[in-house]
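Forum: Protein Structure Q&A
Topic: Joint prediction for protein chains with partners

I've read a bunch of threads here and the consensus seems to be that you should model interacting components together rather than docking separate models afterwards. I'd like to see that in practice. Below is the full input, 566 residues plus whatever partners are listed. Could one of the regulars post the assembled result?
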Amino acid sequence: MAFYRPAAWQKPLSLALLCALLALPTGLEALGQEFYIGFATRVLIFALAATSLNLVLGFGGMVSLGHAAFFGTGAYVAAICEQAGIAEALLAFPLAMAAAGLLALAVGAISLRTRGVYFIMITLAFAQMAYYLFVSARAWGGDDGLSLSRRMTLAGFSLASDTALFFAALAALTATMLLFGRLADARFGRALQAIRENETRMEALGYPVFRYRLVAFALGGALAGLAGALLANQTGLASPGLLQWTQSGTLLVMVIIGGVGYLYGGVVGAVVLLMLEETLVGFTEHWHIVLGLLLLGVVLFAPRGVAALFGKRHG
Amino acid sequence: MAEALLEVRRLARRFAAVDVLKDVNLAVESGEVHGLIGPNGAGKTTFIHHVSGALRPDSGSVHFAGRDVTRLAMHQRVAAGMARSWQITNVFRGLSALDNVALAVQGRADSGSSFRFWRPVKGEAAMFDAAQGYLEQVGLQGKADAVAGNLSHGEQRALELAMALATKPQLLLLDEPMAGTGPEESARMVELIEHLARHVTILLVEHDMDAVFRLADRISVLVNGELVCTGTPEEVMNDAGVRRAYLGDHL
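Posted by a regular:
Agreed with the consensus. Here's the joint model:
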């Protein structure tokens, strides 16, 4: 392995992409395609969720099948806050991140004592427990979920318009990508990547391996919580389905398609998967068949993911 | 005699129905090179695993620098001043030699917390200077930028030593440092260990008898999980129990 090193063109391309995204709502409005602002927001939110999983999976080497629990928890905390009269995102979003992060800390503290397939199973089990907890919680709407009566405000500005929410999601994703990019080169990121490659060696160099993994797992959980809170604002609903294992599976598929361990793996995967869904749903209900074929193709022909086709991880 | 730096008391470990280690007592004095020899399957590597913390004993205890470390995890023992090398080379093959050692420097308590998420490591000149210093100690100063996986076997063994040294150990546990090296590389490794022995206490597991008898101040012999003898190289060479263990099958 080598430490993650982005290709030279990655920075200018990210900046160009960011500029394009900043102009996107205006452009879509000019074209009369406002509908797609909502769609683009959804992509950004899932890009954030998939990126948070990529931190855990790609950089930490932890194959978690329970990431949706943190995603869904973030959504519920946002809905609960809104119902309780906390309609300011600057308050509600950090709360959602804290709750999801703490849950991840607790789940990780137990799960990270196992390895391999046991880790996959135990994270899945915890996520299913969280799912059934929300399903059976009458106060929070049980099966139906908990709805938000209106979108929140961010620093006093209403997120009610799709454009406003789009920019909020873009800000969250941009900040996360910035942190993620810095983290990969910082002490923590280097230690985490080395642990992914050879944990015994790192333990023998004096690193408390468990603690590093746990911090990465909790950080990933907190960022998933932020994505969940954004999604609840967009759809106006926190439903138990967000915590279901199929949702964890979708996030995993996004990361695998995009590129495990690539900075932009989660983003690319979310874009590909959601655009595919959006396009194919118009033709057939059975769009999952095409998704299956795509996944097969990626695994066979681009096993490191789509992002790997454009850049090298190994410097 | 100086106080023992490492003291292993009545260490026992059973795997299934096999007693791999039977009440082993062993003390390594501060400043010495202590050889540990024995026929294949005697339990030498298992013993090192128990000292380093990779495995926990069924009974008995490990004391290091006047402290009971039996319950401590491997990383805690490293922090306490105990470093090890492996029988099979264990380096990060995709990283440069310098990055390998820099990771070891970074992990040390005196180089500050590794829970830093923002500042790039590349700017930490002190860390890489220190790492370069350890590469020089093992004769790899010219290979800093070489990818570890492309180094020769002997160079990888030396790199592993540099990583162990970078943790600033009081005690080095070397598990067959000559394993798989040619005669020339072997000779260089002996020289290197002789040089290191001036600064650090060493427990050396090795099959190369010439090397052990040349390097060790004292030698312990492990046979079928039992420690049959500890003494100076001459004492061990003349010990009847040792002769029986090594030659017994042929008598």
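Chain B has a mean pLDDT of 92.
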